[in-house]
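Subject: for your reference before the review

Hello V.,

The reviewers asked for a structural picture of the protein, and I figured it would be easier to keep everything in one thread rather than splitting it across files. Below is the amino acid sequence we used in the manuscript, unchanged from the supplementary table.
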Amino acid sequence: MDLYEHQARELFKGYGIAVPDAAVVDHPREARHAAELLGGRVVVKAQVKTGGRGKAGGVKLAADPAAAEITARQILGMDIKGHTVRRVMLAQPVDIQDEFYVSYVLDRAAGTFLAIASAEGGMDIEEVAATRPEAVARIPVDPAEGVTEAKAAEIAAAAGLPPEAGDVLRRLWQVLVREDALLVEVNPLVRTVKGTVLALDGKVTIDDNAVFRQARWGETPDVPKAEGDPLEAAARARGLNYVKLDGEVGIIGNGAGLVMSTLDVVAGRGARPANFLDIGGGASAQVMADGLDVILSDPDVRAVLVNVFGGITACDAVAEGIVQALESVHLTKPLVVRLDGNNAARGRAVLDARAHPLVEQVTTMDGAAARAAQLATR
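And here is what came back from the structure prediction:
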C-alpha cells in the first residue's frame, strides 16, 4: 500500500524528521486560505500515488494566495498517468543549498534491506544510477542490527552526504521498521541555505500483509479506492496478483518465483517487463482469460509472454484459458506462449488447433523471452 506524499510527510514528522509546513485541501478556495496561513508564497503539489507529477504539470509555485487558488483550480481534476488529482498539498517553499537522495528498500534477492543514497537528489535517481552509477551508494543493512549511528555514518560517507544526514537516516530506518514498510524514500532531502536538513518529498510503501496493523493509512473516505493504478484496481476486482510496471512486455506465469525469473530473463534480452502477474498454482481457464484481458488493456504493452510450467496448473487448462480469452478480447498484440510440464503437449495442441495468427509458441523459457522482447522492441 503506497501512501500519499502528505501522509508520508506526516509520518516523517512524527518520527522527528523535519518537513516544511504544509496543508492539504480539495477545493481551490481552501487553497487560498491555506496559502494565507502558510505565508502567501507556496508550492502547490498534486496528491496522487504515482511519480512524474512535476513533468505532468502537477507541481507549481504560486506567488501569493490568489495565485494559489488559481493554481489549485488548474491542478485539481488533472489526470496524471491514469490518476485523478482530488487533493493538493500546499507547502512553504525553502531556499535550497544542496539536494540529496536517501531510501531504504527491501532487497528480496539478498534477503536483506538496502540503503540507497546519493548526493545528487531532486532528479530521477534511476537516470543517475544508469548514467553515473558511482554517484549512487548501495549499502546492505542487516535487519537484526538495523541502522545504528555507525551504520548511518557509513551510508552518509559512502554517498557523500553531510554528517547531519545521519540523524535522518536513523529516523527513516525507524519509520521502515515500525510502520511495516517495504520502501521509505526521500527525494529530495535538502540542506537549506541556513543549514537546516528537511525532507521535501517522501514516498512510503507499506507491506500489504501488515495493513491490518497500519489501518490509519487506509484510503481517505472521500477518495475512491480506484485512485490507485486503474489496471491494478481492475486486477484486484478479479482477484489477480498483478503489479503494473513501466515496460512493454506483458508477463503471465504460474508461481511468484517463475514470474520473477521471467521478468529477469526478459530484461536480460533487452526489453522491459510491463507487469508482474502470477496466476497461481491452481489457476482455472477463467483466471487465465482474466489475466490476459487486464494485460491487453495496458496501452504500454506491445507483446505478451505467457510462461507456464505445468504442475497443479495443467498446461491444457492454461491453453483453454488463452483460447477463451481470444473469444472475448480482440487481440492486436503478439502473444508468445511457452508451456512445459503437466499436459504440455495437450496444451500446445489446443493452441495449434486455434491457429491464431498473433499467437506463437516457443518451447524454452529463454527462447520465449527473446522472441517476446524482439516483438516488443522492433
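For the response letter, the relevant points are probably these. The domain at 96-217 is CATH 3.30.470.20 (D-amino Acid Aminotransferase; Chain A, domain 1). Residues 220-226 have pLDDT under 50 and may be disordered.

Happy to draft the paragraph if you're swamped.

O.
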